[in-house]
Design goal:
This protein is mainly β and 166 residues long. It folds into two domains: 30 residues, no CATH class; 120 residues, Umud Fragment, subunit A, CATH 2.10.109. Helix content is 7%, strand content 41%. The chain contains one helix and ten strands, in the order αββββββββββ. An eight-stranded mixed sheet has the order 4-3-5-6-10-7-8-9, with no helix packed on it. Strands 1-2 form a two-stranded antiparallel sheet. The protein is elongated, with a radius of gyration of 21 Å. 21% of the residues are buried.
Length: 166
């Protein structure tokens, strides 16, 4: 039998739902309890170069995406682990995991997963003199001017996995 002399029945059930992970309390104020959403997962497909392109290797495993990364789950997404430091000025470090929305097109200025004749890389897509160019976000890396280019997705979020800080 439920003892309601010290704790209201509603409060009891709120606390039980919090313990089980169905509710979360954002702060200690009024109306601060919200339902927990189902954890979002995406396949971690392998590595992406942030530097010279590398051969794309897929080794899928699911990872949970933090709630702070807002994305529409009705579109396909995937994650890649970054190798290299060509995107450090954008805050992407070697060892980080990038969340990618799968798409085959990009707008100039988008950070994209690009497949070139040399392999896969994460860069900023640009058009210069009517030709596609892939720009790094590290002044020590030259532009890549691919002869062949396939866009495989657009960068939409980052999960910091390393202990490195700026």
């Amino acid at each position: 039998m439920l003892d309601t002399t010290n704790v209201s029945t509603a409060q009891y059930f709120v606390e039980e739902f919090q313990k089980k992970g169905y509710l979360q309390q954002k702060n200690k104020g009024h109306k601060s309890i919200t339902p927990m959403s189902e954890p979002k997962t995406v396949p971690l497909l392998g590595f992406i170069a942030a530097g010279r392109p590398i051969e794309p290797i897929e080794n899928p495993e699911d990872i949970t995406v933090p709630e702070s990364i807002d994305y529409n789950a009705k579109y396909p997404h995937y994650a890649l682990k970054v190798k290299g430091d060509s995107m450090v000025e954008m805050g992407i470090l070697s060892g980080d995991i990038v969340l990618i929305k799968h798409q085959l097109t990009a707008e100039p200025g988008d950070a994209v997963v690009a497949i070139t004749e040399e392999g896969a890389t994460l860069k900023i897509y640009k058009i210069k003199n009517g030709m596609p160019v892939l720009e790094a976000r590290n002044k020590n890396f030259p532009d890549i001017k691919p002869e062949k280019l396939e866009i495989r997705g657009k960068f939409i979020g980052l999960v910091r996995t390393s202990a490195q800080y700026f």
